[in-house]
Amino acid sequence: MRRAVAGVRLAEVGITDLRYRKGQTGSSILEVPGPESAAKADALAARLAEVFRGTDVRVSRPAKTAEMRLAGIDESVTVEAVAAAVARVGGCAVAGVRCGEIRRNASGLGTAWVRCPLVAAKRLTTAGRILVGWSSARVEALAARPLRCFRCLELGHVRLKCPRDADRAGRCYGCGSGEHLVRDCAVAPKCPVCADLGRLADHRLGRKGCAAPPSRRGRRGRGGAAAAPVASAATAPTQRGVSQPTSSAGDPPPTPLASVA
């Protein structure tokens, strides 16, 4: 942060108010409130990127996102076409849209998982359907996923603050195997967390019936302590539904900008 403060004068990018907080992953998050906050945050991010060029520090512009499912996609449509359609209707950049593999049912119609900026998601869910190729795909908003550690696969914390000894990173969420990912899983479900705990495990990770216990506070012991990262960009959590959060005064939230010194 000292290097950031020394390298950028806030007045030069029109910023008179700035809020700082730490992210769950250990990153530093700078929030720019007020009018034209998005443009000012973009300008600050660009200046910080220049200051930290050639270093291990990453600067990003996190944005609140939402997940949805698009159903009824015809066989001519590609993942790229889905992303382009979402960006067109949602009014966002294609680079801000993530689209999963299109999975087809017995009738040949496809379904795709999509994550995009929250503002774009609101437009899509309000529309209800969007034209993708020659098919009118149905838009279904998905509930936010709970916070899950990618190391132990349990809920309530992130990898950096994992208090568990178990390392389940890279295991299939469907059957617990380390040989493939859940999208390629073709065997009977077996929750990796519940199986390790000796509990009923005839389900996929996170599905109904998953009995993973809540996380304990604190870090792992000295022998398994996680090292603090040199740099990490903040990631925006997906939001439940697509409602735009507001402050207690009814104002829109400040635009976040993340960097780490």
From TrEMBL:
Molecular function, one GO term: zinc ion binding
Keywords on record: Metal-binding, Zinc, Zinc-finger
Ranges of Low complexity composition bias in the record: 225-238
Matches recorded under InterPro entries: Znf_CCHC, Znf_CCHC_sf
Region listing for Disordered, in residue ranges: 208-261
Database matches in SUPFAM superfamilies: Retrovirus zinc finger-like domains
Domain CCHC-type: 148-164, 171-185
UniProt-listed PROSITE patterns: ZF_CCHC
Biased composition (Pro residues): 251-261
Record has Signal as a keyword: no
The UniProt record lists the keyword Metal-binding: yes
TM segment ranges: none
Protein name: CCHC-type domain-containing protein
